Amino acid sequence: MRAREVFPPLLLLLLLCSLGAAWNKEKEEEKPCKYTRRETVEYAAVYFDTNNDNMLSRSEVQDAWNKLLTPIEKNLVGAAGYLGWVETVDTVMKNCDHDRDGVISLQDFINSKDTCLSKCWKIETLFDKVLTRAFKLVSPDAQPFYDRRMKRTSAGLDRLLKKMNLQSV
């Protein structure tokens, strides 16, 4: 298939995706979110933090992106991200790295509440499209390791929230 034959359908697909996303954003207020921001933050920290330093570097976000999205999804998300319709690695870092030190810490997640995973559709998209794939990649033998990391991450988040006199992420 030639590029000319593929390109118009891709434009149409991107247009439909953007219209669907806009419609979903309007409908967001009508339904409760399936997941909490806290759940999403905890799971992202556990499954994407490959060096166990309790922070997500740009390379860890990029690695998760590369591992968990298909080539077609990467191209579509990249094009839609360029147009500002969806989050890309660049926008994740910009929106979630509150102190601009190049890594996303739990403190950054707390402080960037208005910009990082600030909408239900963003939380649900990350959880449904990315994190569920991460769960499937973990072998049953490794699951106890991830369960322990989840408990530590949750406890660390609780300590930070208490220190900052906040109730939730």
- Count of folded domains: 1
Number of helical runs? 8
Order of helices and strands: HHEHHHEHHH
Overall pLDDT level: 76
What's the overall geometry?
globular
- Which structural class best describes the helix and strand composition? mainly alpha
Task: Name the CATH architecture.
Answer: Orthogonal Bundle
Strand order of the largest sheet: 1-2
Quick one: biggest sheet?
Answer: 2 strands, antiparallel
- What is the top-level CATH class? Mainly Alpha
CATH topology: Recoverin, domain 1
Name the poorly predicted regions. Answer: 3-16
- Radius of gyration over alpha carbons? 17 Å
CATH superfamily: EF-hand
Please count the beta strands (DSSP E, at least 2 residues each).
Answer: 2
Percent helix range: 55-70%
Distance between the termini: 48 Å
* Strand residue percentage: under 5%
Summarize this entry quickly:
By secondary structure, this protein is mainly α.
Write structural notes for this entry.
The protein is mostly helical. It has one domain (33-163): Orthogonal Bundle (Recoverin, domain 1). The protein is built from eight helices and two strands; from the N terminus they run ααβαααβααα. It has helices at 3-27, 37-48, 58-68, 71-82, 89-96, 106-111, 120-137, 143-163, and strands at 55-57, 103-105. It has a two-stranded antiparallel ribbon with strand order 1-2. Helix 2 crosses helix 8 and helix 3 (58-68) crosses helix 5. The N and C termini lie far apart (48 Å). Mean pLDDT is 76; it is low at 3-16.
